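Example for tutorial group B:
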């Protein structure tokens, strides 16, 4: 018995069946995977949110670019973002658009063909999306092929970064008014004048020389420009004045130049000619944007004007109209006239948020001192897809609420009854309300007026003898 009391009885747990053990193991693995899946989902969401944001630079940028005169250069804009950003280019604070003939804005950057000296400056690519914007800056340096003169102007052993006697750093020349030098191809009629500008600065103060077709101009040809050396003024132009005029600006540090092409045109008694097929008939959605363009060829710069035909009966809507071809037109605001390299002139008419009244005939009119030419095109504006509000019928416009409809007759009856009762009280006649059931009235001779006191109004109802007889009967 003593041994039995010290013996420990161990009972094994009942073994799980194979399916139960597999389910338990699977549940444990599932529970261990749930936090991992949740963490992975949060990580993916975070990465997706991190990808969306303002534009950012996707590649290394070399901010200082140089190109030789007459070559082609491409300035990249390596930006990316989600959503993809929109880009625009500016030069020296001016937006580059389609009117800049040698400039082409590409999806990857800006391409400049046949680089000129005036193309040097600061270029900015601005990228914008819904989260913000950023800019990529470039400084473009235009190098010319004439370097021997520049080298001869720099003394041996001189330091390009040295200072002058006043402590000011040396600086190579640069054009200070590039906006006034953009137009390099100039056409003028015989007898007119033209001014070519090359205003520049530098340290030491630069000098300037003028050349025509690579040959220096004589002092007689420069004339009064000795006093205004930064501007070449050509007066009373003759056909032999046509050519390429180059200004060379230099000091001991460097040299820059710019070339103008001047064309002197013989005056011809011919009016402008509209070339190409534009303007053409156009269709636009309601609220959309479209444009007409017009290309005019003329010996001198023409005046290009857009007109819209005034429909019959609407002349009073406009302050003034003009007659063209026997029809009335209104003058529209006109934008800038662009000069093209082929000698023609281009102008565009933009129509934004088109409405039904914008539809009709439009005319491009080109004019000079010799006359004018015009060409017409039609604009069709599609109907507004939004259904118009239902028209208000006259019956619904004049209908009144039902309380008013019921109240007006009831009020009229009430007022009429009140007036009638007042009249009856004033004359002291028994009156019945309107609409009451008619009662039987005795014959006029049998009518009796009974009152506490004699009433003169009641006497005419019976004769005097009947009245006395009635009074005697009442006393009995």
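The residue assignment follows.
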């Amino acid at each position: 018995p003593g041994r039995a009391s010290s013996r420990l009885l161990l009972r094994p747990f009942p073994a799980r069946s194979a399916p139960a053990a597999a389910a338990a193991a699977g549940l444990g693995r599932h529970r261990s995977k749930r936090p991992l899946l949740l963490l992975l989902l949060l990580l993916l969401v975070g990465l997706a949110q991190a990808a969306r944001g303002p534009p950012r630079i996707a590649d290394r940028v070399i901010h200082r670019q140089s190109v030789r005169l007459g070559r082609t250069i491409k300035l990249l804009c390596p930006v990316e973002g989600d959503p993809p950003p929109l880009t625009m280019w500016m030069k020296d604070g001016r937006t580059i658009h389609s009117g800049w003939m040698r400039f082409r804005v590409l999806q990857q950057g800006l391409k400049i063909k046949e680089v000129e000296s005036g193309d040097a400056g600061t270029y900015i690519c601005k990228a914008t999306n819904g989260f913000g914007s950023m800019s990529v800056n470039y400084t473009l340096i235009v190098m010319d092929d004439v370097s021997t003169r520049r080298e001869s102007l720099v003394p041996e052993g001189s330091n390009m970064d040295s200072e002058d006697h006043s402590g000011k750093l040396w600086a190579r020349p640069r054009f200070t008014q590039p906006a006034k030098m953009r137009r390099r191809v100039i056409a003028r009629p015989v007898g007119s004048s033209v001014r070519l500008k090359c205003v520049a600065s530098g340290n030491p103060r630069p000098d300037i020389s003028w050349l025509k077709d690579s040959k220096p101009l004589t002092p007689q040809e420069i004339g009064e420009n000795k006093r205004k050396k930064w501007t070449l003024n050509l007066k009373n132009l003759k056909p032999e004045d046509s050519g390429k005029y180059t200004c060379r600006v230099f000091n001991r540090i460097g040299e820059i130049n710019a070339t103008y092409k001047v064309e002197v045109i013989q005056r011809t008694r011919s009016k402008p000619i509209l070339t190409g097929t534009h303007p053409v008939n156009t269709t636009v959605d309601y609220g959309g944007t479209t444009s007409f363009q017009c290309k005019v060829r003329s010996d001198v710069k023409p005046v290009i004007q857009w007109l819209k035909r005034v429909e019959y009966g609407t002349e009073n809507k406009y302050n003034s109209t003009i007659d063209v071809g026997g029809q009335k037109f209104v003058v529209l605001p006109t934008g800038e006239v662009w000069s093209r390299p082929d000698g023609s002139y281009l102008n565009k008419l933009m129509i934004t948020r088109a409405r039904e009244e914008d539809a009709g005939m439009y005319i491009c009119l080109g004019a000079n001192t010799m006359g004018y030419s015009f060409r017409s095109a039609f604009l069709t504006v599609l109907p507004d897809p939004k259904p118009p509000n239902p028209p208000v019928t006259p019956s619904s416009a004049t209908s009144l609420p039902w309380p008013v409809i019921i109240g007006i007759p009831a009020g009229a009856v009430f007022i009429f009854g009140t007036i009638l009762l007042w009249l009856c009280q004033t004359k002291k006649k028994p009156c019945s309300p309107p609409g009451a059931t008619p009662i039987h009235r005795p014959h006029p001779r049998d009518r009796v007026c009974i009152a506490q006191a004699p009433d003169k109004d009641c006497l005419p109802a019976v004769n005097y003898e009947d009245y006395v007889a009635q009074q005697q009967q009442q006393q009995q």
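Residues 1-13, 18-24, 145-161, 433-464 have pLDDT under 50 and may be disordered. Compare this with the pattern of hydrophobic and polar residues in the output above.
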